[in-house]
Model the fold of this input.
Amino acid sequence: MLPRNPHFDDARVVWSDEYAGLYAPVAYDEQFDDQWRLFLERKTGFCDHTGVETSDEYIDDRIAELTGVSNVLYRRKWGMFASLMSRLSGRSDRQERRGVGGRLWLEPKFAIDFFQGKRCLDAGCGAGRWTKTLQSLGANMKSIDVSTHGLASTRRFNEDVSKCSIFDIPNRGDLHRAFDFTLCWGVVMCTHDPQAAFNAVASTVKTGGSLYLMVYAPTYHTSPQVLEWRARYHRECRTFEERLAFAYSIADRPENAINLLDMLNTFYNWTIPLAVCAEWFRAAGFGDVVLLNQNEPHACGLHMLGTKR
Ligand SMILES: C[S@@+](CC[C@H](N)C(=O)[O-])C[C@H]1O[C@@H](n2cnc3c(N)ncnc32)[C@H](O)[C@@H]1O
Done:
């Protein structure tokens, strides 16, 4: 028996803090786990995608999105031969292919040495693309998630991984105010209580440290079609194989299946108004809060950064 779902039982897709306490937690450790397993197995549609890929070529794209500096890892590897090798290997021609899944528009960018030597937390690290990105920029990373395969993927490049739900952070004294920078990308809005999830994640940041939050905005695709797909996925598909077949059947192209599964697989998929996020940051003691993607056309997410006072 499924718990009550706000989206397809109550026609609520935009989160309001008044909903706190109304909905029940679900098995968060299962929701993404098969997706990350298929990534590790290099299944079509689950790798070579901006939303998951951790190979150096993709991490260079993530570094460029954060800092504006291109080909950092590639230039580290090839030095003065980097542009020649880029042309010979067809790397630049793969640029468009690597854009499947979209690119970030962040402004202002982080300085290239911003993360150097900082203790950083990737909360809900998934397969580890942001862990590897910040680590490549000199951060000392800790990565937490509830997905066994997500952690197995992240452990390939970071030893400091821990199975931990963000809702258990209040019981983890070692995480409290322990980080110069916490990144929580695409996690809190996929829970029964995004405000409580935010507060738990915010508590990990030291005074003077920063929190980067990415959540879906009310401009995210929550059309009747998407709600119907989500209801079918959760109510009618019994096994993961059925769910996967359904995701492939509605994907525009097989290479994009992970985007569809991302949209379908979480039982909760709230969109969060900017003012609600801004109030969460304020109430948790953060100042200088900026919306990093305000210039992004058709943005479906909010990328927010705040500094703890
Ligand atoms: C959309 S994915 C994003 C992964 C990663 N942040 C990224 O941007 O690539 C959401 C991740 O949050 C994790 N997650 C979901 N609920 C969680 C919870 N309660 N505590 C910790 N992690 C959670 C999932 O297992 C999944 O790996």
